[in-house]
Every structure is written in structure tokens, then in C-alpha cells.
Design goal:
Blueprint: H1 3-21, E1 24-28, H2 29-35, E2 45-51, H3 57-65, E3 70-78, E4 82-91, E5 94-100, E6 105-107, E7 113-115, E8 125-129, E9 132-136, H4 139-147, H5 154-172
Parallel strand pairs: 2-5
Antiparallel strand pairs: 1-2, 3-4, 4-5, 4-6, 6-7, 8-9
Helix pairs in contact: 4-5
């Protein structure tokens, strides 16, 4: 099974569950860059930001519903870029990395962490990926999130550069 087919299977699994709980959510990270048309290899992971309180019953019920495919239980995680709660679900070898926006903090270059979403997820851009309608974090916000990384990989730098070129061209033709 190709990576893109695995992504489709993973999305077909998670979207109905997210809809059933009525969460506002969006896809961010490298997968969003890929779907927006940035020339890059397809990521083997989708980052899903869910607007939910990790301590609410509704979110806890969601965790129970996805436990069958959970490979990294929802828990506090901190590295050089993120200070947040996250979990991973593995569907047919494809990872869905899910975090709650109420707890999504990112470290800046000075080592201070702050919430990425101050209030709410901005209005997502609904796009079609292999016939599946998915909400993507808006282009400028995807760039902002990647630029916020304290430690960037070479592919992050390329993604940012390519997306900025795309945005510049779009604004030029408006």
C-alpha cells in the first residue's frame, strides 16, 4: 500500500469520529504543506489539531473510541519545539498525531513556550484530498507554525520557502 493510500485510509477512519464528537479541528504541519502543493515527499504522518479541553468528558470519550489504534497514548510531551499534550494513532501503518489546541505551546528561540492558538483555530480551508474533504490550517498559519519552530529541519526551511513563494504568487494575481 502506497503512502497516499495509507493517508486516505487513516483519514477515512478518523474523520467520522471527529465529526461524531463535533470537534473543530484542522490538519497542520508537513501534510498541510503537501496538500497545498509544496513539492516535497508525502509525509507518513498527519498532524491534527483538535479544539478541545483535554480534561473534558467529551475528549476523554474520544480517547476511548480511538484506543484500538492508539500507539502513543495521549500524554504530556515536551521537546525542543513543543510543550503540549499529544497522542498517536496508527491506521494501516500511517500515523495520526493528535493534539489539543488548548494545550499546544511552542518554544521560541529563547526557550520560552507560548500557546500557538491564542483563541481558536482560524477558519480552516476546506480542500479535497483524493476525494475526501479535509480542513487545513490556512496557508499563512501553516507557515507561521513552521516558522515558530525553535529547531527547524532542512525540510521545514524548504517547506516555508516554497509556501511563501506560492502565497506571494497568489497575492500577485489577485
Amino acid at each position: 500500500m502506497k503512502v497516499e493510500e495509507k493517508a486516505v485510509a487513516a483519514l477515512k477512519y478518523i474523520i467520522p469520529i471527529l465529526k461524531r464528537y463535533g470537534f473543530k479541528w484542522c490538519i497542520s504541519g508537513p501534510f498541510a504543506f503537501y496538500v497545498y502543493g509544496v513539492k516535497r515527499p508525502i509525509p507518513n504522518e498527519i498532524h491534527i489539531d483538535v479544539e478541545a479541553d483535554k480534561d473534558r468528558k467529551r475528549f476523554k470519550n474520544f480517547l476511548v473510541d480511538v484506543r484500538k489504534f492508539t500507539t502513543f497514548p495521549f500524554q504530556y510531551y515536551k521537546d525542543k519545539n513543543y510543550n503540549h499534550y499529544v497522542m498517536e494513532i496508527n491506521v494501516k501503518g500511517f500515523i495520526l498525531s493528535i493534539c489539543t489546541t488548548k494545550n499546544l505551546k511552542m518554544f521560541d528561540k529563547n526557550g520560552k513556550s507560548k500557546l500557538f492558538y491564542n483563541k481558536s483555530i482560524p477558519k480552516p480551508k476546506i480542500v479535497s484530498f483524493n476525494g475526501i474533504k479535509i480542513p487545513l490550517l490556512p496557508e499563512k498559519s501553516v507557515v507561521k507554525m513552521r516558522e515558530s519552530l525553535a529547531v527547524k529541519k532542512l525540510i521545514d526551511i524548504r517547506d516555508i520557502s516554497e509556501m511563501k513563494k506560492t502565497l506571494k504568487n497568489k497575492e500577485y494575481f489577485k
